[in-house]
Each structure stands twice: as structure tokens, then as C-alpha cells.
Write a structure and sequence with these properties.
Length: 141
């Protein structure tokens, strides 16, 4: 990875100060990685280059630069996540489609779907169906 010029680091820091996520800044400058942008913005690298240095806890403990589709690891889009979470059947009090069905359709692992439904990922969506569990079915005798 190339080293950024001092003027570019100052620009990154100014963008971060304005509220841009590190992933968004890295997308504007695709030659550089998200980690590089983050390290320079936090002052771990190039502390004396100028520009406002970000606090480590600027997002109050929540790594929003890794949230949702801004994450370099994201396998889903916001629309896909919303569609999966909207798949709750109120009448039958259960999910309409299984997580495995969604996983096959979207070509992701079933755990990606299950973690979304349990509310372990995409928490920032605050969707009412996250964490819902189907009622247990009664066993037939």
C-alpha cells in the first residue's frame, strides 16, 4: 500500500471530523485501505501531519465505520436486510421463509441470516422483528 501525502491525511481527518465514516473516506480514495484511513485519522500513524485527530471513542463505543453495508465484510445490502426482517408472519407468529431459504436465494451462509434475525448484526436498523422467535409448536400425541 502506498503512503498518503500529508495534504491527503489532513483532508481525511477533516472528512472524519465532518462525520464521514472511515469506510466512506476509503471509498473516495480506493488506492488506500480502510485501515490506513482509520490509523491516520486516529493519529496512530502520522500524528504530526496536521488536521483534527479523531478520538478513539468518537462513536461512543460503537464502530459505525463497520456498520451495515459500510463494513468491508458485509454480505448484505440495507434493502436485503430490511426484506429479510420484514418476512415475519404476524398471523402465524413465525418467519415466512426459513433462514436457509434466504441464504440460498442471496448466496450467503445461513448464519448471516440467523445473526441478522437475532439482532446480533445490523443492530443499528432497530427493526422490530430483530430478536423475535417463533412460538413453540405443540407436539402431536
Amino acid at each position: 500500500m502506498p503512503k498518503p501525502e500529508a495534504e491527503l491525511v489532513v483532508k481525511w481527518r477533516e472528512l472524519a471530523e465532518e462525520g464521514y465514516l472511515y469506510a466512506e473516506i476509503a471509498r473516495m480514495y480506493p488506492v488506500f485501505s480502510v485501515d490506513q484511513v482509520r490509523h491516520y485519522c486516529l493519529g496512530h500513524t502520522g500524528r504530526k501531519l496536521g488536521g483534527p485527530i479523531q478520538r478513539v471513542d468518537r462513536w461512543y463505543g460503537s464502530n459505525v465505520w463497520l456498520r451495515g453495508e459500510n463494513s468491508p465484510h458485509s454480505e448484505l445490502t440495507v434493502k436485503q436486510a430490511q426484506k429479510i426482517l420484514d418476512d415475519w408472519d404476524e398471523k402465524n407468529d413465525r418467519w415466512k421463509r426459513s433462514g436457509a431459504e434466504w441464504a440460498r436465494k442471496l448466496e450467503v451462509s445461513p448464519s448471516t441470516i440467523y445473526m441478522l434475525r437475532r439482532g446480533e448484526t445490523w443492530k443499528h436498523l432497530d427493526h422490530p422483528n430483530q430478536g423475535r422467535k417463533p412460538k413453540r409448536r405443540k407436539k402431536k400425541k
